[in-house]
C-alpha cells in the first residue's frame, strides 16, 4: 500500500473517531439539557394542573353551599306544613325563605314552585315579587327544574360532582329527608351573568307522613360577584384569582375559560400560577448548558489540531475537483459538467415514464459585446454574475444551470409535461424582465433562448446540444429577445446560411457584388435629384439573393464592417459620374457602432476628392433604439464632417417622435408601408400628414419611399413631401444604366388629384 493511501486511511479513521466523540458529547449534553428542561416544564405543568383541580373543587363546593342554604329551610316539617298544602303562608315564606336565604346565604333570587312547577312565591331584590318574576327566568331555569323532577337524563346542563349529596351522608337525623328529597346545583347564565343556582324539594325532616303527593320545589339564585371569586381564591390560596371578560396576557398568568353548565362563556378565570420548576429552567438549565457548551468547545479544540491537516488536504482536493467542473466567475457548472449531466439524464430516459423528456436550453445575452465595449469588461463580469444569480432563483430546484463561457448559459430540465419546453423558456425569460443594476447603472438586458428536446431532437449529447445551439442562432436571427424550439427546418436553414456565408466571403474577396442605384425625384421640379445606393448579389448557382437574406448573415458573421466599407467606397467612387446628384447610402447598425467609421469616411473623401455634403448617410431606428454616448458622438462627428443624415424607415419603430427631438437629421424617409396604404387607409394619411408637418417644422426634408403609383406620388407631394422614391419612377439600376436613365427621364408635375385615382399595380417587385 502506498504511503499516500495509508495517510488517507489514517486521516479518514481520525475524522470518523472525532465525529463519533463529538456526536456522543453532543447527544448526552442535549439529553441532559432535555431532562432538566422536561423536569422544569413538568413541575410547572403539574402545579398548574393541581391549581385547576383545586379551583374546580372550590367551584363545586360553592354550588354545594348554595344547596346547603336551601336545605336549611327546605328540609323542615314547618316548611311542609306552611307551604306544602293547597295554600301558602306568604308571611312565613317571606320571612323563612326569602329574607332568611338572601340575608344569611346571600341569595339574590328565591322561587317556590308547586307540583306542576308553577310559581307560588317569588323573592327578588330584597322583597317579595309577583309570580311573574319567575316567568322571566323560566327558560333559563327550565333545565335545572327538569333535572330535579326527572333526573339527569332530562337535563341539558353539564353534569357536575354532587358535593352537596356527599356531605349529607354524614347526618344521622336527616337520613329520612335525604332519601325523600331531590336536588340539583349548577352554574348557568342568568340575565346574561354567571350565577350559582340550586333547586331542592321541600320535604319534612322528622315526620315523613306530612309529605303528601309531589313536593314543592325551592330554587335559589346567587350571582357570581367579585366577592364570590375572592372567597374561592382564599379557600385555595390563589390570592389574585379574578374573573375577567378577556384572557390576561402576562408571564406566569393562567387564563382558563369560565364556561357555565349551559355552555355559555362567562369570562376567564385568571391567576398567577406557582412555577416550582422555574428555578430549573432559569438557573440550573443555563448553567448546565454553559457546561455542555464549554465541554464541547474544549473537546473541539483538543481534536482540531489532529485532523486539521487532513481536512485542509481534503478541501484542496475538493476545490480542485470543483474547479475542474465549474466556472470560476459565476460558480456555475461548466461545459464539461453539463455534458456529463446530459449524458446521465439521457441514459435515464430509457427507464423513465412515458412522455418524459430531457430539455436543453441555450441562453445568450443579447448585445453583450456592446456592454463590454461601452462599460468595460469589469462591468461585463459583474453582469454575468448577476445573471447567474437571477437565473438560479428563477429555475426549479432540479433544473441544471451551467455557464459555457462568455455570455452563454445552458439549462437542462427533465419534464413530463407536454409544454415543458415553453414552461422552461418562461422561467428563463422571467430572469430578464427587470433590468440589472451594475456599478450604479441600470442596464436593461434581454436574452435569446434556443431549446432542443430529447428524444425528439436527438438521443446523444452532441445532437441535443448542437440542435439547441441551432435554435439559439435562429432566435438571434429573428431579432433576439425570444425563445425558439428546434425544428428540422432550422438545421436545413443553418446549412443554407452557412453555405451563403461561405459564398459571401468569396464574393467579397472576388468583388462579385454590385451596387445599384434607385433615383430620387424632387416634388418641386419633378426631376431626379438623387439616388440611393443598394447592394445586389447575383450568385453563380443560386441566382439573385435578396439583401434581406445575405445582409443579416453578414452582420452575424462579422462581415458587415468590411462589406459596409466596400459599399461606401463604391458609392463614393461612382458618385463622380453624376456630380449633380445626392447619393444616399445605408449604414447598418453593426457598421454604425464600429469604432473606425469616422476614420473610414475621412479617408474615403480624401482619397476620392469628393464633397461630403453630396452624401446622405441613412440610419434606421435600430441604431437609435439603444443609443449610447458612442452612438451620439459618432452621429455628431459625421454631421460635423459635412455628411447629411437621414432617418430611414421612419414610423416602424417604437419611439420615432422622440428620435426627431433628441437627434438632428437632415431628412426623414417615410416607410413604404404608410405610402402603400395612403390610398385606402385614413390612418396612414393622417400619420403621413403629421410626420410631414413635424419634419418640415423642424427644418427637415421629407422623402417618401416605395411610391408605386401616380396617385401615391401625387398624394405624397400634396401632403408636403419634398422628395419621392419608388418603382413608379424607376427600379434600382446598375451604375452604367443610371446616366442614360437621367438623360431620358422626363420631369413630372406633382399636382394632387381632386379624388383618389385607381391604384396601379407595379410592373415589378422591389428587392
Give a written overview of the molecule.
- The chain is of the alpha+beta class and 767 residues long.
- 50% of the residues lie in helices and 19% in strands.
- The protein contains 26 helices and 26 strands.
- The two termini are 78 Å apart.
- Residues 1-7 and 752-767 have low confidence and may be disordered.
Judged by helices, strands and strand pairing, the structural class is: alpha+beta
- Largest sheet, described in full? 8 strands, mixed, barrel
Mean pLDDT: 83
Task: For the record, give the distance between the C-alpha atoms at the N and C termini, rounded to a whole number.
Answer: 78 Å
The helical percent reads: 40-55%
Which percent band covers the strand fraction?
A: 15-25%
Give the strand order, joined by hyphens, for the main sheet: 17-18-20-21-22-23-24-25
Uncertain segments: 1-7, 752-767
Gross morphology: elongated
Q: How many β strands by DSSP?
A: 26
Gyration radius, rounded: 51 Å
Q: What count of helical segments does DSSP give? A: 26
At a glance:
With 767 residues, this protein is an alpha+beta fold. The protein has 26 helices and 26 strands. It is elongated.
What brief labels describe this structure?
767 residues; alpha+beta; eight-stranded mixed barrel; six-stranded antiparallel sheet; 26 helices
Spell out the blueprint of helices and strands.
Layout: H1 3-74, H2 77-83, H3 90-105, E1 109-113, E2 119-124, E3 127-129, H4 132-135, H5 138-150, H6 163-168, H7 175-180, E4 183-190, E5 193-201, E6 217-223, H8 226-236, E7 242-244, E8 253-259, E9 265-272, H9 278-325, H10 335-349, E10 357-365, H11 368-375, H12 377-394, E11 400-405, E12 408-415, H13 420-430, E13 436-438, E14 441-443, E15 447-454, H14 461-477, E16 483-485, H15 488-510, E17 514-522, E18 528-539, E19 543-545, H16 547-556, H17 560-574, E20 582-586, H18 589-592, H19 597-608, E21 615-619, H20 621-625, H21 629-640, E22 644-650, H22 656-662, E23 667-670, H23 672-676, H24 682-697, E24 701-704, H25 710-719, E25 723-724, E26 733-734, H26 735-744
Parallel strand pairs: 15-16, 18-20, 20-21, 21-22, 22-23, 23-24, 24-25
Antiparallel strand pairs: 1-2, 1-6, 2-3, 4-5, 5-6, 7-9, 8-9, 10-12, 10-15, 11-12, 13-14, 17-18, 17-25, 17-26, 18-19
Helix pairs in contact: 1-3, 1-8, 1-9, 11-12, 17-19
Amino acid at each position: 500500500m502506498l504511503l499516500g493511501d495509508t495517510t488517507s486511511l489514517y486521516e479518514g479513521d481520525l475524522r470518523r473517531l472525532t465525529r463519533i466523540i463529538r456526536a456522543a458529547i453532543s447527544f448526552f449534553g442535549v439529553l441532559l439539557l432535555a431532562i432538566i428542561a422536561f423536569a422544569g416544564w413538568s413541575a410547572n405543568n403539574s402545579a398548574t394542573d393541581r391549581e385547576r383541580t383545586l379551583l374546580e373543587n372550590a367551584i363545586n363546593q360553592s354550588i354545594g353551599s348554595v344547596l346547603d342554604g336551601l336545605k336549611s329551610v327546605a328540609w323542615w316539617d314547618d316548611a311542609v306544613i306552611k307551604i306544602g298544602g293547597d295554600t301558602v303562608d306568604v308571611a312565613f315564606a317571606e320571612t323563612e325563605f326569602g329574607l332568611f336565604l338572601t340575608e344569611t346565604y346571600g341569595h339574590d333570587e328565591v322561587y317556590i314552585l308547586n307540583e306542576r312547577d308553577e310559581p307560588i312565591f317569588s323573592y327578588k331584590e330584597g322583597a317579595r315579587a309577583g309570580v311573574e318574576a319567575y316567568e322571566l327566568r323560566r327558560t333559563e331555569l327550565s333545565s335545572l327544574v327538569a333535572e330535579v323532577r326527572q333526573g339527569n337524563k332530562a337535563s341539558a346542563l353539564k353534569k357536575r360532582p354532587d358535593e352537596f349529596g356527599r356531605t349529607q351522608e354524614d347526618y344521622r337525623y336527616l337520613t329520612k329527608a335525604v332519601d325523600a328529597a331531590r336536588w340539583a346545583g349548577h352554574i348557568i347564565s342568568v340575565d346574561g351573568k354567571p350565577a350559582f343556582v340550586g333547586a331542592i324539594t321541600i320535604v319534612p325532616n322528622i315526620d315523613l307522613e306530612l309529605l303528601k303527593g309531589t313536593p314543592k320545589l325551592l330554587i335559589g339564585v346567587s350571582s357570581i360577584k367579585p366577592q364570590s371569586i375572592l372567597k374561592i381564591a382564599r379557600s385555595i390560596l390563589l390570592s389574585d384569582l379574578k374573573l375577567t371578560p378577556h384572557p390576561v396576557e402576562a408571564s406566569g398568568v393562567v387564563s382558563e375559560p369560565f364556561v357555565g353548565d349551559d355552555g355559555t362563556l362567562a369570562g376567564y378565570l385568571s391567576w398567577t400560577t406557582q412555577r416550582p420548576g422555574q428555578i430549573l429552567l432559569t438557573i440550573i438549565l443555563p448553567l448546565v448548558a454553559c457546561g455542555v457548551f464549554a465541554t464541547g468547545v474544549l473537546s473541539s479544540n483538543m481534536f482540531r489540531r489532529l485532523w486539521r491537516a487532513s481536512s485542509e488536504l481534503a478541501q484542496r482536493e475538493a476545490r480542485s475537483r470543483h474547479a475542474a467542473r465549474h466556472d470560476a466567475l459565476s460558480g456555475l457548472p461548466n461545459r464539461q459538467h453539463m455534458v456529463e449531466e446530459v449524458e446521465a439524464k439521457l441514459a435515464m430516459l430509457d427507464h423513465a415514464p412515458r412522455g418524459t423528456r430531457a430539455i436543453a436550453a441555450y441562453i445568450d445575452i443579447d448585445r453583450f459585446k456592446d456592454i463590454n465595449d461601452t462599460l468595460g469588461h469589469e462591468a461585463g463580469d459583474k453582469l454575468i454574475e448577476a445573471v447567474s444569480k437571477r437565473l438560479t432563483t428563477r429555475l426549479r430546484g432540479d433544473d441544471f444551470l451551467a455557464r459555457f463561457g462568455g455570455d452563454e448559459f445552458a439549462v437542462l430540465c427533465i419534464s413530463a409535461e407536454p409544454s415543458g419546453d415553453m414552461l422552461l423558456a418562461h422561467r428563463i425569460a422571467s430572469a430578464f424582465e427587470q433590468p440589472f443594476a451594475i456599478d450604479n447603472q441600470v442596464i436593461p438586458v434581454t436574452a435569446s433562448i434556443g431549446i432542443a428536446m430529447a428524444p425528439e431532437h436527438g438521443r446523444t449529447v452532441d445532437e441535443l446540444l448542437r440542435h439547441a445551439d441551432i435554435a439559439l442562432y435562429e432566435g438571434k436571427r429573428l431579432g433576439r429577445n425570444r425563445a425558439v424550439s428546434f425544428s428540422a427546418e432550422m438545421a436545413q436553414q443553418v446549412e443554407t446560411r452557412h453555405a451563403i456565408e461561405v459564398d459571401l466571403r468569396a464574393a467579397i474577396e472576388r468583388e462579385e457584388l454590385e451596387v445599384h442605384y434607385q433615383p430620387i425625384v424632387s416634388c418641386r421640379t419633378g426631376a431626379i435629384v438623387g439616388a440611393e445606393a443598394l447592394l445586389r448579389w447575383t450568385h453563380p448557382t443560386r441566382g439573385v439573393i435578396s439583401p434581406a437574406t445575405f445582409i443579416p448573415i453578414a452582420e452575424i458573421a462579422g462581415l458587415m464592417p468590411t462589406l459596409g466599407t466596400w459599399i461606401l467606397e463604391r458609392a463614393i467612387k461612382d458618385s463622380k459620374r453624376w456630380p449633380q446628384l445626392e447619393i444616399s447610402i445605408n449604414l447598418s447598425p453593426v457598421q454604425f457602432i464600429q469604432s473606425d467609421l469616422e476614420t473610414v469616411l475621412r479617408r474615403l473623401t480624401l482619397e476620392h476628392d469628393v464633397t461630403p455634403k453630396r452624401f446622405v448617410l441613412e440610419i434606421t431606428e435600430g441604431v437609435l433604439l439603444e443609443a449610447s454616448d458612442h452612438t451620439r458622438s459618432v452621429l455628431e462627428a459625421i454631421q460635423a464632417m459635412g455628411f447629411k443624415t437621414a432617418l430611414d424607415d421612419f414610423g416602424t419603430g417604437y419611439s420615432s417622435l422622440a428620435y426627431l427631438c433628441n437627434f438632428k437629421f437632415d431628412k426623414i424617409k417615410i416607410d413604404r408601408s404608410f405610402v402603400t396604404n395612403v390610398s385606402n387607409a385614413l390612418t396612414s394619411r393622417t400619420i403621413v400628414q403629421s410626420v410631414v408637418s413635424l419634419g418640415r417644422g423642424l427644418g427637415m426634408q421629407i422623402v417618401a419611399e416605395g411610391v408605386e403609383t401616380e396617385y401615391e406620388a401625387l398624394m405624397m407631394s400634396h401632403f408636403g413631401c419634398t422628395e419621392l422614391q419608388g418603382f413608379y419612377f424607376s427600379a434600382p439600376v446598375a451604375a452604367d444604366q443610371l446616366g442614360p436613365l437621367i438623360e431620358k427621364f422626363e420631369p413630372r408635375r406633382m399636382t394632387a388629384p381632386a379624388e383618389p385615382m385607381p391604384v396601379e399595380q407595379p410592373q415589378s417587385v422591389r428587392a
